[in-house]
Amino acid sequence: MTGLDAFARDYVLQTHGVRPLIDRTSRLALMLLAPENMARWSGAQLRRVDIHVAGHHGQHRCVAIAEEIAAGPRAAGTGCEVEPRHIGKPQS
């Protein structure tokens, strides 16, 4: 089971304080990606913002939280990728 599974995701999202963290981070990403802000500091470079969410094993909480953070920009029509780096790795 990983943070992509509904049961794990729902459990993580019930954690005290996680919703304000997700909402703030999602709003910040949208603010940074706004065209008027990107023009200020990115110039002709690729317009991209990386947000890293880390966890102890990298398979449960951080995955669910990263997906929820990405939901905000996606809902606003902004392309967004989530790359869970440790989902396939064995836990030690």
Offer a concise description of the structure.
It is built from four helices and no strands. The protein has helices at residues 6-13, 18-33, 35-41, 61-75.
What does this structure look like?
With 92 residues, the protein is mainly alpha-helical. It is built from four helices and no strands. The chain has one domain (6-75).
Q: For the record, give the distance between the C-alpha atoms at the N and C termini, rounded to a whole number.
A: 15 Å
Structural class: mainly alpha
Q: Report the sheet-strand fraction.
A: under 5%
How many domains comprise the coordinates? 1
Major sheet description: none
Mean pLDDT: 83
The 3D shape can be described as globular
Kindly state the number of beta strands. Answer: 0
Total of DSSP H or I helical runs spanning 4+ residues: 4
Following the backbone from N to C, one meets helices and strands in this order, namely HHHH
Share of residues in helices: 40-55%
Q: Return Rg in Å.
A: 15 Å
Give start-end ranges of low-pLDDT stretches. none
What structural keywords apply?
4 helices, 92 residues, mainly alpha
Set down the secondary structure blueprint.
Layout: H1 6-13, H2 18-33, H3 35-41, H4 61-75
Helix pairs in contact: 1-4, 2-4
